[in-house]
Design brief:
Helix content is about 45%, strand content about 15%. Strand 28 and strand 29 form a beta hairpin. The radius of gyration is 36 Å and the shape is elongated.
Length: about 900
């Protein structure tokens, strides 16, 4: 791809990001080769709903996935990141209904009641349209609006293979869904029955237990008198839902509760209704709840339904699918459930049967989608038996075939799977996969088949009534890892890329999706769907509050990326993404990494501008020199005399950093990998190495051989761009294309990640350079404290270690330039003949600055006291961290060791401050 010869002075992400995003797609760079000789790596994207747009949770998830995909690709693996979207039954149906309502009532635009009014009108219009026309409208909406996620992902540079894009209602995928349903039914693992289910009156469908959100609310506990049939007393029954008492078929007590032993077997009269009901004893009754006497309402409570089954009680259904009272509610029929509650309480009070009312903390089940309070209803639905599917999925995690990270989620997964219940998989919706069942009204037979039957399999009647319910969205999503690869056909993709290597998701869908994918994968392929499952964190606002529209703290990732650039947003997310820890995200955080992007750009621009000043032969030699040796990587280029210390140091650091990044990404420690790259690029490469070699690379070339300093700088910069690329793909792609090379590939993302040879490891040079670095930093601080930033004071350098002294003397020219002082006096013992500012760097170096200006001892003492306080706080913090068993247990060992090293360094620095204070007092 052509890039401008003159690199712009100002970094403008908007100018380059859309260009490279378009280029990657047009060139189809991210299609796997299928080469069996290459190791493969595969991840199928958690499919976003077609109804939505990217939120910060998606942005985090896609950033983490893309980092790993680019990293694996650059390690030579044949990578498939398979994209796709989910049809999202309830969400899509609600949105299309709302659109219908908006078209019918455009005059409500901008008014507070608009959304609810449009939804109601849309529901009415849907029913008037009928299923066929409404589903056509859903498909039309999907084609016009449902590709928003894809456009956003393309803009943000996700390195997916768009040629393999899947949709959960594509014909091939739908065939897989129908095949799974039919096979499970044939095995007796899917059945149709009548049970208490969660019903959403607003959505008009059953919802699973996982789709019910339990909100804590303050309600009431009403105590109602149920008179005995004989008229000699009553039982006081406590309830939080008096409107459902109209459906009572018994009252119950615990058999061990001596208070009510004599009441068991008697009969009571149901208030307001007059129905005579028995008093039964059942162990499920909690004697501590209310009075210890509870009403039994089998049609509207799952626990009561179980009690009724044990005691042979009838079921009376007094609330319907619209949350209105039925005919069996007598005088309250037709009332909304909450209006009926008011009427029931009013009538109980009038009859003297309401004994008392207490405040009571409730856990109210609401629909995850629309927030309506769900109604437990007795309903005929399709269910899936989980007790046969769960054990293999449990064993797959226990024996390590699936590794869950962070590991605490493995225990949560196992606990949930061990207590799993049958899954209600039918939904009373129109948009979705229609359940492949037909009913014969002639003989009552239920036929399940993959193709529409011509006649009843039992009585041969030709008139069959198709099932109108659709499957829960999560049923079809559970097939995602293998259905997207062509199952049930044994396709090449299925053979090559199943099982997937990795799945990344949020904790909120671990059971909705993660557990169900595991069960379905094992059932239909005999293998786990993925080998590793990483649970990413939640993105919160700067105050660590959950983002929500009602709080007004939602950040739109597209707006943030437009403002700061995609690379800055990605890096801010990655460097915050510690496993198991939620992310506090803010504009301020992104601003700091936009500054990092500017630093990268300016460093690249400085290098490229000076490259362009080289003669053609030098650029050609450089192009050859920065082609890494296959399988070996770069070595440092030496001059005729010897390899410079700075080169030995930076190459050794490059090797160490590459290893650290590899280790961190292999264990999903994105924050450590990002921090390592950040520190290396900004501080080690830009602040030290580039500044060290700047005089050499800005000096006009002499001769016909490219100086080693240029070769080494170009190699290190090339490798640094590769290290940074998975995190910041756009800016690194742009700068990489500005470098000369003999064999230019289409993208940095398709070149090797590990560019440095193992031979360059040099801990001695790292130690030596660190001594010089500490010395320069100490000298800069001393000058700043004296207010001499623009001057060059004289200095004395003393150290009893002659090797250190000789090292400093050897590199004094660079030290003078970078620290800004006159040629120092080197000696083994410090000698003080005039007032000076004393600084101690590492390796026992005593450094003194001399200047004509009289030193203000009080100011120096105050400065040292301030520094002592600051360092003491750092020391205390490090000490607390090292004494924290949780930190030592969860953090990577390299992080613990680095903290221990830092504690030693800060402790030594603290000792030197104390010594300086002592000397200041004694000299005074």
């Amino acid at each position: 791809m052509h890039v401008e010869a003159q690199i712009p002075k100002v970094y403008s992400p908007q100018a380059i990001e859309s260009r490279w995003a378009r280029f990657w797609i047009e060139q189809k760079l991210y299609r796997p080769s299928g080469d069996p000789a290459r190791p493969r790596f595969c991840l199928s994207i958690p499919p976003p709903n077609i109804t939505g747009s990217l939120h910060m949770g998606h942005m985090l998830e896609h950033t983490e996935i893309d980092i790993l995909m680019r990293w694996h690709r650059m390690r030579g693996e044949d990578v498939l990141w398979l994209p796709g979207t989910d049809h999202a039954s309830i969400a899509t149906q609600m949105i299309v209904e709302r659109e219908l309502g908006r078209e019918a009532l455009p005059q409500l635009e901008g008014r507070p009641e608009a959304q609810s009014a449009w939804q109601r009108e849309g529901q009415r219009l849907r029913l008037a349209m009928g299923p066929e026309r409404f589903v056509e409208r859903c498909w039309k909406w999907k084609e016009e609006n449902g590709e928003a996620i894809r456009r956003q992902m393309e803009r943000l540079g996700a390195s997916v293979d768009w040629s393999r894009h899947r949709f959960t209602m594509d014909p091939a995928y739908s065939r897989a869904v129908i095949a799974v349903f039919a096979r499970l039914y044939e095995k007796g693992l899917i059945y149709r029955g009548q049970y208490i289910i969660n019903w959403c009156p607003r959505c008009g469908t059953a919802v699973s237990d996982l789709e019910v959100v339990h909100d804590p609310r303050t309600g009431h506990l009403w105590y109602i008198r149920y008179p005995f049939e004989t008229g000699d007393g009553h039982l006081s029954v406590a309830t939080t839902r008096p409107e459902t008492m109209l459906g009572d078929t018994a009252v119950a007590v615990n058999p061990a509760d001596n208070r009510y032993r004599s009441a068991v077997g008697r009969r009571a009269v149901l208030p307001l209704v007059g129905r005579v009901i028995p008093v039964v004893a059942d162990a499920a009754v909690d004697p501590q709840f209310g009075t210890g006497v509870v009403k039994v309402t089998p049609g509207h409570d799952p626990n009561d339904y179980a009690i009724a089954a044990r005691h042979g009680l009838p079921t009376v259904r007094v609330i319907d699918e619209h949350a209105q009272m039925t005919e069996l509610a007598g005088p309250y029929r037709g009332l909304d459930r909450y209006k009926a509650r008011e009427a029931v309480l009013r009538d109980l009070t009038a009859q003297g049967l309401l004994e008392k009312t207490e405040n009571y903390e409730l856990s109210v089940g609401t629909c995850q989608r629309c927030k309506t309070v769900v109604e437990p209803l007795l309903s005929t639905q399709w269910f899936m038996k989980m007790n046969a599917l769960a054990p293999p999925a449990l064993e797959a995690v226990r024996d390590g075939r699936i590794r869950i990270t962070p590991d605490n989620y493995a225990k949560i997964y196992l606990d949930w799977m061990e207590n799993i219940h049958d899954w209600c998989i039918s939904r009373q919706l129109w948009w979705g996969h229609r359940i492949p069942a037909w009913y014969c009204d002639a003989c009552g037979e239920v036929i399940v088949a993959q193709e529409p039957p011509a006649a009843c399999s039992k009585c041969r009647a030709a008139s069959l009534r198709p099932e109108t319910d659709v499957l829960d969205t999560w049923f079809s999503s559970a097939l995602w890892p293998f259905a997207t690869l062509g199952w049930p056909e044994q396709t090449e993709d299925l053979k090559r890329f199943y099982p997937n290597d990795l799945m990344i998701m949020g904790f909120d869908i671990l059971f909705f999706w993660g557990a169900r994918m595991t069960m379905m994968g094992l059932e239909f392929t005999g293998e786990v769907p993925f080998r590793e499952l990483y649970i990413h964190a939640l993105v919160r606002d700067a105050e660590r509050q959950k983002m929500s529209k009602t709080k007004g703290n939602v950040l739109d990732p597209l707006e943030v990326t437009e403002k700061y650039g995609t690379d800055a947003v990605r890096f801010a997310l990655a460097i915050s993404a510690a496993p198991g820890t939620d992310i506090a995200f803010s504009d301020q955080k992104v601003e700091s990494y936009r500054a990092f992007a500017n630093k990268v750009w300016n460093a690249g621009r400085f290098i490229v501008m000076n490259l362009q000043k080289l003669p053609d032969f030098a650029r050609n030699q450089l192009a050859q020199a920065i082609e890494p040796m296959p399988g070996l990587g770069f070595d440092a280029a030496a001059s005729s005399e010897k390899l410079a210390l700075a080169d030995r140091w930076i190459f050794s650091r490059l090797l160490a950093v590459t290893r650290e990044v590899n280790g961190a990404l292999a264990s999903y420690r994105f924050h450590e990998a990002a921090h390592t790259v950040y520190h290396f690029f900004w501080h080690e490469f830009c602040d030290w190495y580039l500044e060290w070699v700047k005089p050499e690379i800005t000096r006009p070339m002499d001769g016909t051989r490219t100086p080693p300093c240029w070769i080494n700088l170009a190699r290190v910069f090339e490798a640094a761009l590769h290290l940074l690329h998975p995190f910041m793909p756009f800016i690194t792609e742009e700068l990489w294309h500005q470098l000369p090379r003999a064999r230019r590939g289409p993208s940095i993302s398709l070149t090797s990640f590990e560019l440095v040879s193992d031979r360059v490891a040099d801990p001695v040079s790292e130690t030596q350079f660190h001594v010089i670095e500490e010395f320069i930093v100490a000298a800069r601080h001393a000058k700043a404290d004296m207010g001499l930033q623009t001057e060059k004071p004289s200095a004395q350098v003393a150290c009893q270690d002659l090797r250190v002294l000789e090292l400093l003397r050897t590199y004094q020219e660079t030290m003078l330039r970078l620290a800004g002082f006159e040629a120092p006096n080197f000696r083994q013992q410090p000698s003080v003949t005039e007032p000076s500012i004393v600084r101690h760097s590492g390796a026992g170096v005593d450094f003194r600055l001399f200047h004509e200006k009289t030193i203000d001892r009080d100011a120096e003492r105050a400065r040292l006291v301030r520094e002592r306080t600051k360092v003491q706080q750092q020391l205390d913090q490090l000490q607390r961290q090292l004494q924290n068993e949780a930190f030592r247990g969860r953090a990577h060992q390299e992080v613990v060791r680095a903290t221990e090293r830092r504690h030693g360094e800060v402790s030594a620095h603290y000792g030197k401050i104390i010594e300086s204070l002592r000397k200041l007092e004694s000299d005074g």
